[in-house]
UniProtKB/TrEMBL annotation, chains A, B:
InterPro entries: Homeodomain-like_sf (IPR009057), HTH-type_TetR-like_transc_reg (IPR050109), HTH_TetR (IPR001647), KstR_C (IPR041642). The keyword Heme does not apply. PANTHER family: HTH-TYPE TRANSCRIPTIONAL REGULATOR RUTR, HTH-TYPE TRANSCRIPTIONAL REPRESSOR KSTR. Residues 40-59 bind DNA. Residues 17-77 form the HTH tetR-type domain. This is TetR/AcrR family transcriptional regulator. The keyword Oxidoreductase does not apply. It holds the Pfam family TetR_C_20. Signal peptide: none annotated. GO terms for molecular function: DNA-binding transcription factor activity; transcription cis-regulatory region binding. Keywords: DNA-binding.
Length: 204, 204
DNA sequence: CGCTAGCCTAGAACGAGTTCCAGTGACTCG
DNA sequence: CGAGTCACTGGAACTCGTTCTAGGCTAGCG
């Protein structure tokens, strides 16, 4: 990671950066209270001391705002995870361990997780760039966890994409109460087996 | 003292069943025009010759309506797929072939697919039973495609769940323009490898 | 110093999902 | 036959995301 890749924010002044932070903070706070529905644009604006129109200048829709919130949280998590890399040996186990850590972190703020994930999957084409950024962040977290020596192969990247798919979707089923935590764990462990399967030096 | 009954499936008169059909039909038609946003409750009501309040009696929210629409379409697809079972030999290939067929069918009505999938992933707890029905239908389609002789093992069921996760999430990335059709194909083929991996009598 | 350009604020206004209400018609039970 | 019940109708009303308008404040520039 070299420079800030904020697309919407080109050279913000300090006051503007502070506003942006206040908005994201208010968004996360409201989200952790009551999830997606609790993040109401008027309230976000009020809580961050900004006019409604200004909020919309910074984030052109509620989904944009929540996806940006997710970016923020993910960056946080990425750093945290980096500080304590997984203890397992095998790449598959390392990824599973990392994702379960992330999952436990989300469990602590289920409403926030709900808001962010719902926004992410509900996002339409107009939010694609931002969603893509989130996706790249997630990919980076997984690749980090794998602890590869060399660049990943195309096959491995496919496996990582599938793991991401499973991660998001499993999260949704858990958030909507249709899957238990144990089931999410099993699903993650199952999909992580793909990593062994696509290792360049097969241990099959 | 009459017990509260689920309005969906229990003891509808003929006129009511006809109304329900008209509503679902109007919903699908509007969805195939312009996706999620084009399905407007007032318009659905008008197009199916029903008052708005009545529409809400049958389907308590737009998401409920669209998930029910998906149920309907999935049932259709299940029958169609049954009539032409996959030609491949190996279970993994059979499932991949079946899902790609389903995918091509969705490509023909991308807006409809958009509306249904967005509704599905956006659904909150109040829609859990309906979403679960959709999930069971999908599971049935995949299990059918596998062409098992015996009941699936727990491991296989995990693999099927992961395939479902991947299916939904890959669909979303395609619908929001962040993945190409080729990429969806690769992801599906990748995840289907889990089937071989969890086969009770390993084919390799 | 005054002007113009932007960004910001307050608040009205609009659209679509959802809820509510008064009335109507049909069917059942007494 | 009469009364009550219940689904349906038409439409008003409410909420919240989003857009629009008018005016104010700041900054840079002549």
């Amino acid at each position: 990671m070299t420079a800030e890749v904020k697309p919407a924010a080109l050279q913000l002044t300090e006051r503007q950066e502070a506003r942006r932070r206040r908005i994201l903070h208010a968004s996360a706070r409201l989200a952790s209270r009551g999830g997606f529905d609790a993040v109401q644009m008027r309230e976000v604006a009020e809580n961050s001391g900004v006019a409604l129109g200004t909020l919309y200048r910074y984030f052109p829709s509620k989904v944009h705002l929540l996806v940006a919130t997710m970016q923020d949280q993910l960056q946080h998590m990425h750093e945290t995870l980096r500080k304590r890399p997984p203890t397992e040996e095998e790449p598959a186990a390392r990824v599973a361990q990392t994702l379960m850590r992330a999952f436990r972190a989300l469990q602590r703020e289920p409403h926030l997780a709900d808001a962010m994930v719902r926004a992410l999957t509900f996002a339409d084409r107009s939010v694609s760039p931002e969603v893509d950024t989130v996706s790249r962040l997630t990919t980076a977290i997984i690749l980090d966890a794998m602890g590869l020596d060399e660049a990943p192969t195309a096959e491995q990247l496919s496996a990582v994409r599938v793991i991401e798919h499973t991660w998001h979707s499993a999260l949704i089923t858990w958030l909507s109460g249709r899957a238990s935590i144990a089931q999410v764990k099993i699903d993650i462990e199952t999909v992580c087996r793909l990593i062994d399967l696509t290792a360049p030096t097969p241990a099959r």
